[in-house]
């Protein structure tokens, strides 16, 4: 597949798509119902392929690999350890398969890869001098256990009837609508957390660990400081308040845990044939890792556009970003 038909490389070999980033029509005005339906149900779109994939994984795991609510009424080592082992295995397979395909086997070389460099293997910035091993450590030793802790606590309060419990039979419409809303809520929650941890004291002590991955890969997705993990996965607590089913909470956590890889592929497309490819929608978050202070959210809600931190990949956006940085530096010098 010829990447030159879809984008261009600069003198340093960095690839940029021709199409500029934009948001879906959900928050456009005047409202465009047909455009919203096409965006929601089309391909690629809001549901397909990634949100549907994560939802199906969550539903399958709920029915096939989750202890019964009766079992989860009481904290016991057995079922808690099972959920932890399940999540570790699922993350290892999900991230590992993508990493193996794109970064070990290098099935498409650097075709559609934003940064032409491969991941660091001899960099003292990372644990073990390896970017991949460092990312795996923080993901598996901190990220998945904290994700699991939120899941265990949420299942326990559901099982004991301490929070509202929705069944599909009681309200099938709200059941489905809530599944559709969860990725939107996650994006809003992620934006708030992300802006918070870019506050200089928290950035220096917490978020810098994730941003060591300027050239991110799949295992960079939830390679974070434990404090950031606590904040990042805390969005699931909304289901302690809003009428929900455990499947909704699982989808929420799986979306946070697995869908994070979408912004960290490092590739614009995954080539699946001579003329076919799957879009990753990774460019917005790639730009965040490249420039640090743009595109705090990416996806469906134009939060960055509203708050002046949107970068669509164009020269105009880069000029606007640099102007904003220079104005901020000037204010800092004047205040000093």
Automatic annotation (TrEMBL):
Subcellular location per the Swiss-Prot or TrEMBL entry: Membrane
GO molecular function, one term: iron ion binding
One BP term from GO: lipid biosynthetic process
Record-annotated Fatty acid hydroxylase domain positions: 180-309
One Pfam family recorded for the sequence: FA_hydroxylase
Species annotation: Bauldia litoralis
Name by which UniProt lists this protein: Sterol desaturase/sphingolipid hydroxylase, fatty acid hydroxylase superfamily
The keyword Membrane appears for this protein: yes
Keywords annotated in UniProt: Membrane, Transmembrane, Transmembrane helix
Primary residence: membrane
Transmembrane among keywords: yes
InterPro entries named in the record: Fatty_acid_hydroxylase, Sterol_Desaturase_Related
Bilayer-spanning residue ranges: 46-65, 77-104, 137-159, 165-185
GO CC term, one of those recorded: membrane
